[in-house]
Amino acid sequence: MQHRKEPSGMALVRLKRAAQITLPAELRKRFHLEEGDYLEVEAVENGILLKPVAFIGREKAWEKVREVLDRVHAKLPPSDQSPREQEEEITRIIKELRQDDAAERRP
Questions:
Q1: 4-52: which CATH architecture?
Q2: Cα 29 off chain centre by
Q3: 5, 11, 17, 57: most buried by Cβ count inside 10 Å?
Q4: What is the pTM of this model?
């Protein structure tokens, strides 16, 4: 893959067969990207924006859900939360895990 630095500090990449591109090594290192990672693609006014997406593996996510369920149902006194509030807490915890994972990937 060939790329060259433009005067603006941006790298120029070439679209290859099957619409593939290779991100420059300095960007992959900066954003902690590895083969198999996901990027969100968005059409913006002046081009295409690629953003790394934090994914939590299914097993890790279920492990955390089980921990929350154990804490909510088994180890604490009966909850004063409604089922909806409990679901919202689980959702909040999962969102925090995703944010933590994304933060680890940022430079």
A1: Ribbon (2.10)
A2: 16
A3: 11
A4: 0.46
